[in-house]
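4.2 Preliminary Data

To establish feasibility before requesting continued support, the project team ran the inverse folding procedure on a target of 212 residues. The structure was first converted into the token representation described in Section 3, and no sequence information of any kind was made available to the design step. The complete token record follows.
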């Protein structure tokens, strides 16, 4: 199972599109909208629900540990970035709807708001789904990053090969207690693992420094 409840949240996120599209198709709106818009909204809502159901049932297999290996720390990306993007997308989509049907503004303004809304909303959805399927592990032998959406992507970095640890935080991330940790390996392969938007990133980095 994926972390959290992506199916439930996907259903909730899809409701405005399903309800809005259904009202258009059933002629329950005070204004006359194209039927094509109604179908587009319903289909978009159903796609959100379908992907949410897929994400709910998808998760990387349990990490396989060696005989003397044990997990020291486990982290997941927070959903705060996804929430901000989804909220921004809803705001711009609402503004586009208002400008289109309730004002006489030139069409360029609602078009710009619509494009920004769709971009932010789509980015927020993907970020939410991806974060639900991402896990970072620190064991006494390795750093592991696991992510599965359509396929499994797993990166493993033995502690003996860690040559650099870098922490990054913006001002906003510092205020809300989030951060990023970049772990680089030595050699010509340039392998690195990046923990993004995790709580107490310094704690994870400190655990790692104690082991190398």
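Position-by-position output of the design step:
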């Amino acid at each position: 199972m994926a972390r959290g409840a992506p199916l439930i949240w996907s259903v909730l996120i899809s409701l405005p599109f399903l309800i809005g599209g259904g009202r258009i198709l059933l002629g329950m709106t005070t204004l006359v909208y194209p039927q094509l818009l109604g179908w587009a909204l319903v289909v978009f809502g159903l796609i959100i629900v379908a992907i949410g159901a897929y994400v709910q049932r998808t998760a990387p297999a349990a990490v396989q540990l060696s005989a003397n290996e044990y997990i020291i720390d486990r982290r997941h990306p927070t959903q705060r970035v996804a929430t901000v993007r989804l909220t921004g997308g809803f705001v711009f989509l609402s503004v586009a709807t208002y400008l289109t049907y309730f004002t006489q503004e030139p069409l360029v303004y609602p078009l710009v708001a619509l494009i920004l809304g769709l971009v932010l909303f789509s980015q927020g959805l993907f970020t939410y789904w991806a974060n639900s399927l991402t896990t970072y592990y620190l064991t006494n032998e390795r750093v592991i990053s696991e992510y599965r959406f359509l396929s499994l992507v797993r990166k493993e970095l033995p502690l003996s090969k860690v040559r650099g640890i870098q922490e990054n935080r913006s001002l906003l991330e510092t205020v809300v207690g989030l951060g990023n940790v970049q772990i680089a390996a030595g050699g010509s392969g340039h392998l690195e693992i990046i923990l993004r938007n995790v709580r107490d990133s310094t704690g994870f980095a400190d655990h790692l420094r104690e082991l190398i």
